[in-house]
Write a structure and sequence with these properties.
alpha+beta; Alpha-Beta Plaits; rod-shaped
């Protein structure tokens, strides 16, 4: 009731004033109310709008960056920088395996380098009229299988193993020895054959043979 009485008293005092003063008071009141409205309501709303707009712009920029990254990832998901190299390696390995099989098939019917010296000496000792003078290993020699063999480290290498043999004996024993070499189930390649006649029926023979293998190891071990 006291508050109502005070309000009525205030209204009465306002109405008792001249019109000009009442207008000025009303204008002042409106200005104060506008200032309070602007300070208490509009400014916080404006600041919030600016903050929300800034956050929205930041989110939009982040979304654009994420979309760009996603596009790049999807574009490169099937890209493999080593795929072509792996294809080349697989093709080379297949070619090497084919060459390896062919070489193994070709050398399987030849005497191995490790067996060749003892085999030659054993056949020689079976002929009582032959005498071994010397048996010499020659350095292994790498043979060029194809044009790329020297450039391609994966390509198998075929080695020629040579052996030089010198012995003396009579013609019939020499002929029998050479025939036995020809009849071996696993043979070797004759590279040189020299027969030097001495006092009949004796002769000196220089024989150079070789075999092939995929290993560089020395003949006889």
């Amino acid at each position: 009731m006291k508050a109502l009485h005070s309000l009525q008293s205030l209204i009465h005092r306002y109405e008792s004033r001249p019109l000009r003063e009442r207008i000025l008071l009303l204008v002042c009141l409106l200005v104060v109310l506008f200032f309070l409205w602007d300070t208490a309501v509009m400014n916080p709303l404006d600041l919030r709008k600016k903050r929300d707009r800034k956050q929205s712009n930041e989110l939009r920029i982040e979304l654009t960056e994420l979309t760009t990254r996603q596009t790049l990832v999807e574009a490169h998901k099937d890209f493999d920088p080593d795929r072509e190299n792996r294809r080349k390696l697989a093709r080379l390995q297949s070619e090497v395996a084919d060459i390896q099989r062919q070489l193994e098939a070709n050398v399987v019917n030849l005497v191995s380098p490790q067996e060749m010296p003892e085999l030659l000496k054993d056949l020689l000792t079976q002929q009582q009229k032959l005498q071994l003078l010397s048996l010499e290993n020659l350095p292994a020699e790498a043979l060029q299988i194809n044009e790329r063999a020297t450039e391609d480290p994966l390509s198998p290498v075929l080695y020629r193993h040579r052996l030089r043999l010198e012995f003396v004996g009579d013609y019939l024993a020499i002929l029998a020895y050479l025939n036995k070499l020809e009849e071996l189930p696993r043979g070797m390649v004759w590279e040189k054959l020299e027969i030097e006649t001495q006092v009949y029926p004796q002769a000196r023979v220089r024989l150079q043979v070789y075999t092939l293998s995929l290993n560089r190891g020395w003949i006889g071990g």
